[in-house]
Design goal:
Elements lengths: L20 H22 L11 E2 L1 H7 L2 H24 L7 H9 L3 H8 L3 H4 L1 H7 L16 H15 L7 H22 L4 H4 L1 H10 L4 E4 L2 E4 L2 H5 L6 H19 L3 H7 L4 H30 L13 H6 L3 H27 L25 H30 L5 H4 L1 H19 L2
Antiparallel strand pairs: 1-3, 2-3
């Protein structure tokens, strides 16, 4: 069961698509382009910059209640302990730890953050453990560190998931999670709570996703806001640009590595050859996505920009928030059926997490139900997630452009970014539907 974990990222082949592939690509690209021209005609001023949202007083009292905070911290630490216990001491064959990590945590962060907002930091067990070591002062974070530690940690996780042949082995998961926890807890003890918003890859990822949640914080108060207004508050820093390009590029490589053409050419590789080829493939996919986005953003700069409108990351940083809904759309398209099917295994195997012959939940012998989702529904979710993500990306990018460029230059300045969005849309649909 565990050996088959990573290959189950396959979402379905071209035959699952209820419409011809070419029609899906053209229609999706047209939807993005039409959205852009409609926005250019009727949207000339920024609407999301500085929007606070409606305060949720009762929800704030509940979220800030010390008992609620303690319960979340205890649950987070307990979940980490059970994960590590199962990975280190459970059965090598029937072990829930890989599914818990790659499905329940990695994929589950997406709906959790979109629905509940910035909740991950409250339950983050690494924060909690580091906070147990009391210090009177902390070492200041190095200058220009930005989000690069989180980018490095995320790159390592994605390499383990997409490249390393034994990434789903429970002992490999145990070593990786333990090493990651030790590094981040140690950094949290040295640098204090300021480390986690820039150094803990999972917290940074969750915080980026939470920018698109209708729930957010303003002056310490929980607010109900337009999700795109929250998205506009994403920090304009170079590390965030790298993080989102890494997410998009790795998802693209995940799709490429499941093509039959790729499998036929790499199926007979030796282990060292596999590592080299897959690592290079991942690097190239990320580089292509990053190059396309950076080229589009910097070409946009041919227009005159309002004085003082850019942050430290320049035009790429100004538009990087538009990649968040695209990254979410790609993730939903690639991981939807994986989560629905393989996610069941996390519950079924949890009945005996340590391989002791237990049957805690009475699910021993039960198998994954692959019949409750049809291929047509899966394909519809795939295409819908990608198109919706790109349309929201176009809206976010256009709103930011209205704050950067003068009205007479607004449409022309955005053509390079529009071209990149259409390319991402067409490429995304091709990746999740081609076999």
């Amino acid at each position: 069961m565990v050996v088959q974990l990573l290959p189950l990222h396959g979402i379905g082949g071209r035959g699952d698509l209820p419409v011809p592939l070419w029609l899906a690509i053209y229609s999706a690209g047209a939807a993005v382009a039409v959205s852009f021209f409609a926005l250019s005609a009727f949207w000339s001023r920024p609407r999301f910059e500085g929007t606070a949202g409606a305060p949720l007083t009762a929800a704030t009292r509940i979220a800030d209640n010390p008992i609620v905070r303690i319960v979340l911290k205890v649950l987070g630490v307990a979940a980490l302990a059970v994960l590590l216990g199962a990975a280190w001491f459970g059965s090598p064959e029937q072990n829930p730890a890989p599914t818990w990590l790659y499905v329940w945590i990695w994929v589950g962060i997406i709906p959790l953050s979109l629905v509940c907002g910035p909740i991950w930091r409250l339950a983050n067990p690494l924060r909690t453990i580091a906070g147990l070591v009391r210090r009177t002062s902390y070492r200041p974070l190095p200058r220009r560190i930005a989000y690069w530690p989180a980018v490095a940690g995320l790159a390592g996780f994605l390499w383990l998931e997409l490249v390393y042949p034994d990434g789903s082995d429970p002992r490999v998961v145990a070593i990786a999670v333990t090493a990651y926890a030790v590094v981040n807890v140690a950094a949290g003890i040295v640098y204090g709570p300021a480390w986690f918003p820039i150094g803990d890859s999972f917290e940074v990822y969750a915080e980026v996703l939470a920018r698109l949640s209708p729930l957010g914080r303003s002056d310490g108060q929980l607010v109900l806001r337009n999700p795109l207004a929250g998205l506009a508050t994403l920090p304009q820093r170079r590390g965030i640009v790298a993080l989102l390009c890494l997410l998009l590029g790795s998802t693209a490589f995940d799709g490429i590595s499941r093509w039959s053409a790729w499998s036929q050419r790499t199926g007979e590789l030796s282990r060292p050859q596999h590592l080299v080829v897959y690592t290079l493939g991942l690097i190239v996919a990320v580089a292509v996505v990053a190059g396309l986005f950076l080229l589009a953003a910097r070409t946009t700069g041919a227009a005159q920009i309002r004085p003082g409108a850019l942050g430290e990351a320049g035009l790429p940083g100004a538009f990087v928030h538009s990649l968040v809904p695209i990254a979410i759309g790609y993730a939903v398209a690639h991981y939807f059926s994986f989560a629905m099917f393989q996610g069941q295994d996390g519950w079924l195997l949890a009945t005996d997490p340590f391989g002791r012959g237990w049957d805690l939940f009475g699910t021993r012998g039960t198998r994954i139900d692959y019949t409750f989702l049809g291929t047509g529904l899966i394909a519809a979710v795939q295409i819908g997630a990608i198109v919706l993500g790109h349309v929201l990306g176009v809206v976010a990018a256009h709103d930011r452009a209205t704050a950067l460029f003068r009205r007479r230059q607004l449409r022309r300045a955005q053509y390079p970014m529009l071209a990149a969005m259409v390319a991402f849309t067409a490429g995304g649909i091709a990746l999740v539907t081609a076999s």
